[in-house]
Design a protein that fits this description.
Chain A is mostly helical. In chain A, 78% of the residues lie in helices and 3% in strands. Chain A has two domains: 2-277, ABC transporter involved in vitamin B12 uptake, BtuC (Orthogonal Bundle), CATH 1.10.3470.10; 283-370, Orthogonal Bundle (Arc Repressor Mutant, subunit A), CATH 1.10.10.10. Chain B has helices at 3-28, 32-53, 59-81, 87-109, 117-122, 143-161, 163-171, 173-178, 183-205, 207-224, 228-253, 257-275, 281-307, 313-316, 321-326, 330-343, 357-369; strands at residues 132-135, 138-142, 346-349, 352-355. The chains are: A mainly alpha, B mainly alpha.
Chain lengths: 376, 370
């Protein structure tokens, strides 16, 4: 409650939370496409590659205006993306190597430029290395407005080209056969991704920005099979974990904002992987168990029926151990029999012997017919 | 060049070679991004190890952090096995979370000890000569030289011992499994080496630049050769080259040594992309151009042979006629004729072209091939 009160009254907290939520929305929304297109790690490469752009923008203009630095970062991100594409298309070096290479080389170049600035431009560089790990606490209202503006434009572009981007993500060749400029669309969408990354650098830093792109989208993917829902959910997850992370880090001492946001996103992903309906692991486990039990009940029922047929007497009671043996002692026969008893399909006679009821005979017969079993 | 400078370059070279060796197999197995994931995710391992040992140089810390690297590989595999996310997303999910954990651990508990994220991530090679390895009063050189030398030795031993197995598992995993070479075990052993190398190198070059040294030189070597053994050797050489040229770049700019090494690794890769024999952009451009001229020459010789000793020969062998019959522009035709006469396949006598014996052979061979 106190936190909520703070959120409304405390300027810094409100700014940081709004900024984190903004980057979560934009990163989640555009990240959905990156994840679906198998470009999750491109975000990582772009965010690392932004570093020399930031340093160069400062070196050339001498300004620390976030808009200028973001422009530099975006430029470097686009150059790195083109370099990765160029290397994979013109040489035999594979995509993953090209990613790792450009990521680390650009980062190294950024480091060279940063240290160069540090040693030659004196103290005026202070604040540039905030881009390494992000410095959410230093966000001011103007930064958030710029983030929201840029992010809003990127999201608007995404909505305007919705159909085209959907085709690009799921069936590129079909799109091309319709006469759409798929390559241009690819470049536009990647540029939008670069924008989404650039606006988050100041808050979470170049190292962790990739998580903001991947995590909300990967979580959202578990809950739905529809692109619209996925993008919306990813934006929602991004916003919630962004604002949540910002608030947690503000309410505890020595909790850096960027990593806290990433941990929140990690928690959302873990929860989604486990608990999402249909796809989630717990859901899968429960469904498998239920199916296994139903199958065992049906098998036991049909086994009993088969035994009864062999004896020529539908009322003949059989020992549980015979049924156990027919299932190769895989277990669970007793539980299955008890459930069948509850359903009124079998009854127990003197302790360990079981026989079919009339309803059980009918059901077993129907099952055997369904499966085309010849039991005689 | 002072002794300290020499020592820095020595350490840098050893680090670069130690990184390049496992890097060769990373890029051949298409797992280059795994080096990125591991080098980030070892951070919490380093922090926890540091809390327990209070000593960044402790072998226990190195082992603990290397195990974190293996844990990362395992976690990525677990997430990927659920089939709920793709492999690249699994990598991208696991390492930022582990890295964040490390950063938070440092921020919360290591405020007053000498361990900060910058140092782990960026490294500072310039300090390497100040940390000496002293044994019984004898100064045996920089400590990092011994640590990295040990890691290099381990990498070398592993590589030479399991060279055949690595080669087979890399190029034909199915056959390796069928022959009982346990590709899974080999995979984890390789990942263990990558972690060990990354952990040991972090205080020299920083964990992100380990990636540059693991991927850069092998990717460059990949453009230069088709043979694995040559590729391993070239990678080591290119690693050393990046290290030393990087040092001098840093010296000239007065900037981060590790960053310069990574930059130089990228520069050498760029040079290879442009100038590699056979596969380079320049070489391919020249091949294509040569093919164009040779094709034109063959066309010309075949054309002349077709009309040799025929009634039309007089008309067909006139130079001006080529434009009409072969569809060549006058300048192009003139250049083809000039090149061909230079190469001795045709000869020009008062406006008429004739085949030399050599030209006749060229035409016959070209026709046989088709």
């Amino acid at each position: 409650m106190e936190l909520l009160h703070d959120l409304l009254t405390n300027y810094t907290l409100r700014t940081v939370a709004l900024g984190a939520a903004t980057l979560g929305i934009v990163g989640g929304g555009l990240g959905s496409y990156a994840v679906l297109r198998g470009q999750s790690l491109l975000g990582d490469a772009i965010s690392h590659a932004a570093l020399p752009g930031i340093a160069l923008a400062f070196l050339l203009t001498g300004s620390k205006d976030p808009a200028v630095l973001m422009l530099g970062a975006a430029g470097a991100g686009v150059v790195a993306t083109l370099a990765i594409l160029g290397v994979t298309e013109t040489t035999r070096v594979k995509y993953d190597s090209a990613l790792a290479l450009m990521l680390s080389v650009f980062f190294g170049l950024g480091l060279v430029l940063l240290t160069y600035i540090q040693r030659h431009a004196g103290a005026s560089q202070a604040g540039l290395d905030a881009f390494l790990f992000g410095q959410a606490a230093a966000l001011v209202e103007r930064d958030v407005i710029i983030m929201a503006l840029l992010g809003g434009i990127a999201l608007l572009a995404m909505v305007l080209c919705w159909k085209e981007f959907k085709l690009l993500a799921f069936d590129r060749t079909f799109g091309a056969s319709l006469g759409l400029p798929m390559r241009a669309l690819d470049i536009v969408l990647t540029t939008l991704l670069v924008i989404a990354i650039v606006i988050g650098l100041q808050t979470v830093g170049v190292v962790l920005m990739s998580a903001v792109i991947i995590a909300p989208a990967a979580a959202a993917r578990q809950w739905t099979d529809r692109l619209g829902w996925m993008v919306g959910l990813a934006a929602l997850f991004g916003a919630l974990s962004g604002a949540g992370g910002a608030m947690v880090s503000a309410s505890m001492a020595n909790m850096p904002t960027g990593p806290t946001i990433v941990l929140c996103m990690g928690a959302v992903v873990t929860f989604s992987l486990l608990g999402a309906p249909n796809r989630g692991l717990l859901w899968q486990w429960w469904r498998d168990r239920r199916n296994a039990r139903r199958l065992r009940r049906e098998t036991v029922l049909v086994d009993l029926y088969a035994l009864a047929l062999k004896h020529g007497d539908m009322q003949y009671a059989h020992d549980e151990s015979a049924l156990d043996a027919m299932l190769a002692w895989s277990g669970g026969v007793h539980v299955a029999l008890e459930r069948l008893e509850d359903d009124g399909l079998v009854t127990r006679t003197n302790g360990h012997r079981w026989r079919l009821t009339d309803a059980g005979v009918q059901q077993a017969q129907a099952l055997a017919d369904d499966l085309h079993l010849s039991l005689r | 060049m002072s002794l300290a400078q020499l020592e820095i370059q020595l350490v840098a070279t050893v680090v670069a070679v130690a990184c390049a060796l496992p890097g060769v197999f990373l890029i051949l197995r298409r797992m280059a991004m795994m080096s990125d994931a591991i080098s980030h995710a070892i951070l919490p391992g380093i922090v926890v190890g540091f809390f327990l040992t209070e000593n960044l140089a402790s072998p226990f810390l190195i082992v603990a952090a290397a195990l974190t690297g293996l844990l990362t590989v395992g976690l990525v595999e677990v997430v990927e096995r659920t089939k709920l996310v793709k492999e690249d997303a699994a990598i991208g999910l696991v390492f930022p979370v582990l890295f964040s954990l490390g950063v938070i651990l440092i921020a919360r508990f290591a405020g007053d000890v000498h361990l900060d994220t910058d140092a782990v991530l960026l490294g500072e090679l310039a300090f390497a000569p100040f940390d000496r390895f002293v044994l019984a009063g004898w100064d045996l050189g920089p400590r990092s030289l011994w640590v990295m030398g040990g890691v290099l030795l381990i990498n070398l031993i592993f590589l030479t011992t399991f060279y055949k197995e690595l080669k087979l598992a890399t190029f034909d995993a199915g056959l390796a499994a069928a022959l009982g070479f346990l590709p899974g075990v080999l995979h984890y052993a390789l990942m263990g080496l990558v972690s060990l190398t990354a952990v040991s190198a972090f205080d020299a070059v920083g964990s992100i630049l380990v990636v540059a040294l693991m991927v850069g030189p092998p990717a460059t070597a990949y453009l230069l050769t088709d043979r694995l053994a040559v590729m391993v050797g070239l990678s080591a050489g290119l690693g050393a080259l990046s290290a030393i040229s990087g040092y001098w770049l840093a010296f000239a700019l007065d900037a981060s040594i590790a960053g310069s090494m990574a930059t130089m690794a990228g520069v050498w890769f760029g040079v290879a992309v442009l100038c590699a024999p056979e596969r380079g952009v320049v070489a391919r451009y020249r091949t294509r151009r040569n093919q164009k001229w040779r094709f034109a020459e063959q066309m010309l010789t075949i054309h002349l042979m077709q009309h040799e000793d025929t009634p039309q020969a007089d008309r067909e062998t006139r130079e001006a006629h080529l434009q009409e019959h072969l569809g060549w522009t006058p300048t192009f035709a003139e250049r083809v004729v000039r090149r061909s006469t230079q190469r001795g396949t045709i000869e020009r006598t008062n406006g008429h072209l004739a085949l030399t014996p050599r030209g006749r052979k060229v035409a016959k061979q070209a026709l046989e091939r088709t």
